[in-house]
Design goal:
By secondary structure, the chain is of the alpha+beta class. Helices cover about 50% and strands about 20% of the residues. The protein contains 9 helices and 8 strands. The protein has helices at about 1-20, 30-35, 40-55, 70-80, 85-100, 140-150, 155-160, 175-190, 230-259, and strands spanning about 55-60, 65, 100-110, 110-120, 135, 190-195, 200-210, 215-225. The strands form 2 sheets. The protein has a 6-stranded antiparallel beta sheet, sandwiched between helices. It has a two-stranded antiparallel ribbon with strand order 1-2. β7 (about 200-210) and β8 (about 215-225) form a beta hairpin. α5 runs antiparallel to α9. The radius of gyration is 21 Å and the shape is elongated. The model has no long low-confidence stretch (mean pLDDT about 90).
Amino acid sequence: MAGTSSVQSLDRAFDLLERLCYSHGGMTIGALSAETGLHKSTVHRLLSSMCARGYVQRDAATSIYRASMRLCELSSSIVDNLDMVDIVRSPLEELGRQTEETVHLAMQEEQDIVYIHKVESGSGAIRMFSRIGMRRPLFCTGVGKAILATWPDNEVQSVWQKSDVRPWTEHTIVDERAFAREIEQVRSRGYALDDEENELGVRCIAAALPDYSGRATYAISLSAPAGKMTDERIAALLGPLLAARDQIAAVLAGNSGRR
């Protein structure tokens, strides 16, 4: 029974922490209690423990709780310890210098992608809203579609059915048949496009980083304002993007051979 109680407390603590992370401006004990259905005394006890560990902060004047930057410190350490980031860092920095566009590395987690490395545009253009640690659905991002295109159709369909399919913008594909046709186009082209499907005013071109079996859980992309990222610009960026992909793939193949 003690073990079950401990697991339940841990689950409740994570639920509270996630809600604080996604909240704008923090939340009170009352608001957290109302959203979770937990008694206020339980919420207070769990928040006090998280405050003591530095994961949550309480504003004494307003009694509002917020997630602290401790989580950012941990996420930074996790990213730094990922072998993939070390492998791609140099090629992606070179890709950024060569193209002067924003470069991303993303990894797949369940039905989402998570940005784990970013090289900002060197042109002084607008900053992309993306940030390391940000999570977005596979189905409406260039990196997500590039990854899915390396998977069997039944797995792509499974991701679609499990996803919260909704229009992130007016350009988001929300019809399953249209999405299946899009994935086929990605396979035939060898790269994916995000045509303002995830963020209005931003287009991107993406390529998957398949493992030895041909299946990918990582992808890289180049992003720019839609006004700048014309079809002609995409055609010009395709060569450098695929060259970076091939360079990384060669390193990955070498690593696989040593394991």
